[in-house]
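--- STAGE predict ---
source: upstream dedup step, 1 unique chain passed
mode: sequence only
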Amino acid sequence: MSTASSSPRTGSVPAPSASSPPSGLGRAGLFATLSALFLSVVSFAAAGIAVPDIGASLQATAAEQSLVVAIYALGFAVPLVLGGRLGDLYGRRRLFLIGMAGFTLFSLLATFAPTMFVLITARALMGISAAAMVPQVLATITASTQGRERARAVAWFGATAGGATAVGQVLGGILLSLPLFGAGWRTVFAASVVLGALSFLAALRWVPSTSAPGHRSLDLIGTVMLGAALLFLLVPLSQGAGLGWPAWCWALLIMAPVLFAVFWVWQHRVHRSERAPLVPPPLFRLRSYRVGILMALMLQSTYGAFTFVYALTAQTGLGWTPMHTALVLLPFALCFFSVSVWSGKLATKFGFRRLLIIGGIIQAVLLAVTAASILLQRPELNSWTFAALLIGVGIGQALMFGPLVGAMVADVPPTIAGAASGVLQTVQQASMGMGVAIAGGLLSTAVNGATIPIADTYTSALAICMLVQAAFAITFALCALALPRR
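--- STAGE serialize ---
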């Protein structure tokens, strides 16, 4: 994007080039494009299940085990906006292929990692590779589709983003029982190699080439500022609880909002000078995108907290195996996936706003009912009852996630689609990290000071987490009222 082709003095959003309208993505192109999102999420979820096996195999400390997950999230989140911007400037298909190739090669390195240092390094590089390829998914959809085709494509995007988490957990549980390379966790990373190679070949054949017109300038100062701000936020959030929240963690957290403010002032300055900012300020003059970012923060932070507390409650509090823990989520994942795909058709008939309000209400009610059921059963929590109630939660979640993405990108022109995608997914990753960090700190405090049986402590924490999530779901529905009616 070149801000010279926009109207920087009025703050208008640049319009797409009239000479290059969306040419259509096609089903094969859509699935090939979505493979990057699917692979990145599945790998993250499966690695989380494999952490205990990694620790036993490589004699890793607790801090090293947490880094296997945290370093991937950091490598993924910090350069996400840059990855989207590079796709805008130099071609989204090119960045997609570079990221997919890197992800596959570094997954191979992780598969045969002889030490924790090598494995942690490989995971960081996998995250950086994901940051190159994943922003191109939504950007390619936005640049290549419009109208009903875009609504359906965004529905598949939402289904993939949500369903891949549970798929990764189930797949991780299965692969851990197949020590094809001497240990189950190596099989988990080997699966990413196979999936990455297939996705790369599919992308070569079907992913279209799109980019944004304009000069090739890149806001390097803004890139450094945003990267530093995100590191100041995410490093203490991911490591603070495990380290006992030392003073430097609090110092970084205090500095983070200051750096974000400085970054935003700089973006306005770059925009006014008719150069290309990393995050175009006019993007946040779109009401649907601005409100949607707030809603995404609420949705992702509470979902991240739930998945974290649930995993610990199931395995540590109730003594379930990783496979048992994952399979209880399977009905939720299948329901989420099917309803998300269906929501694409509903959106064209009823509109995104109405679906978001309905989804928030459904999820709030079912979360409250599920929390009450947990409190009544406590340590005798029945897997079948819990899984059945989560189906209703999945319906609400599906009507919230996919339509939210659709509402946010509805007015985004292809010229800044990559930046819009990168910002959204950065917010999602950071929100997940915040949700996990806050839930982890509160859960640790509750467990350490508990005077009741450990199973009761964990199940009570899960119920409280779901009640908080229900309150945010109602707030989410109220925020949806601020979105355009169409």
